[in-house]
Amino acid sequence: MEIQFSLQGKTLPADHGYSLYSAIKKNLLNIENPLKQQIFESSELSEEKIIPSNVLISSITGIPNGNKVINLSKRISKLYIRCPSEQVRSWYSLLQNQVLDIRGHLIRLVQPRLGLIQPSNTLKARIVTFKLEVIDHSDLPVYFLESCKKSIERLEITAQVYIDSNELGDIARRSLQIKHKHIVGVWSCS
Length: 190
Fold this sequence. Notes:
Elements (H helix, E strand, L loop, with lengths): L1 E7 L2 E3 L3 H14 L5 H5 L15 E2 L5 E2 L4 E3 L6 E5 L5 H8 L3 E4 L2 E11 L8 E5 L11 H15 L18 E6 L2 E9 L1
Antiparallel strand pairs: 1-6, 1-8, 2-5, 3-6, 4-5, 7-8, 9-11, 10-11
């Protein structure tokens, strides 16, 4: 199932995925609530990995302001968490009205809504990455497309894979930062 939280707050770093995960993890560690055990009972978790692998957290959309920051919008800025149906009550209760500190930007998770995950004919990702030992930027598009094709074939999915371009017609590259490491990827559709 999917839980959709509305947000109270003004801004977030544009590259906030890892910081969002860390803020949720920190809040879970600090909460004293018996519902927390329901999330962790069936998972083998260490102190490093607090959030089970069957729980998916989306990054939050916003309106870029040009300073590596996004402005939050009541209409489009939401936090989506997907989890097994038996954990919905726990995640709903544990995160409702929690304040997350995401690199100095404070947001409150409010008005949670429950929904079922809907299938889609099109998948578009903000960023897609593959681990490369050496990066040759001239061959990156070919390697990326071949890697995508192999990955979706392993999943027994039939799809067309392509790389978007930016407004200048160049391959749309994006990067994200995890701790102090920069990771390069591209936009992708299938």
